[in-house]
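Example (one chain per record):
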Amino acid sequence: MVQAMIDIPEEANHILNIVKARYNLKTKSDAISKIVIECGGNILAPELRTEYMKKLEKIQKGKYNSYKTFEELRKATS
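Predicted structure:
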């Protein structure tokens, strides 16, 4: 675990206290970690796999598979 001393404004401190209370966290460090992990997911969105992109392109072009039953879908995807 990395330790760091940081200076934060009063408003940020207030928000940390709210996050800490809302999620029943023990420390402000836990609150900072929660905020960073949640926001990081939005910033560092993973790239889509190429096969998924190809499926999306087929769907956008109107080329998609239709299934009458869930069994047909399961057989096609397995």
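Caption: Residues 48-78 form one domain.
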